[in-house]
Amino acid sequence: MSVAMEATSLWDELAEEYDPHRRSRRLWTKFSVWKELFEEAIGEATLILDVGCGAGAMALPLAEKPRIICASDISGGMLKLAKKSAGKCQPSLLNRVFLIRADSHYLPFRSNAFDAVYARFSLWPLKDPCKAVEEMTRVTRINGRIIIAEVNRKEKNYSRLPLRAKIFYKIYKFFSRLLALRKDTSHVWRQLKAATRENPLVNLERTLNWLSAFNCKVVKVDCEVKFKTSTLLSRFLDVHPDYFLLVAEKHQRF
Length: 254
Fold this sequence. Notes:
The protein has 10 helices and 7 strands. The protein has helices spanning 3-14, 31-42, 59-62, 76-89, 129-138, 163-178, 186-195, 204-213, 225-229, 232-237; strands at residues 47-51, 68-73, 97-101, 114-120, 140-151, 216-222, 243-250. α3 (59-62) links the parallel β1 and β2 (68-73). The protein is globular and about 55 Å long.
């Protein structure tokens, strides 16, 4: 099995952890704030592409307004869960959200097709995130927006946690397994980290350079997004590294 196929299989195994309806996810992050941030970034765009949509945590809420969202992901398991989630919250969303299995390195869309294109924490697992940003730019119309939210990684070892967070996680995982709330996926995460270990770092500086190279002008950079979206528990345990959210506009045909 190739590294790319292995990583895809691993994401399929992890899909349930990304279920938008999973209550435990709300312990760590404020999804309502994420929605507000992306609503503001997208603006008046009506045809939008979500690159690396996962289980639809951002695509489904954004589709509550009258707009069309194409949501792409390499993981069939994630897309299956996104479809299931749409049916749970509002079946009519499936009329506005089109789920497409696609490699972010080679987006199957014509150039200049979308009013806005975004990626939320979906660049870091890629073999060539620069190529994905190039593809995001290609499929965005002139004066359209590219929105990227990512962890501002400065080193390969990004999994270090404070002692209090490690203790909390051990207790949390024990009771989750005891109560059958979740299966133990720690071995899957170890495999995924091994499969992505050689991937380039994604951080703010590199992302700015990529967008500049692809004829985009950055109009907003928000480095306070971690504070805005973290819950009190998440802040206390300090489980999340620093994030950034940037908005760029495509100024020339690419």
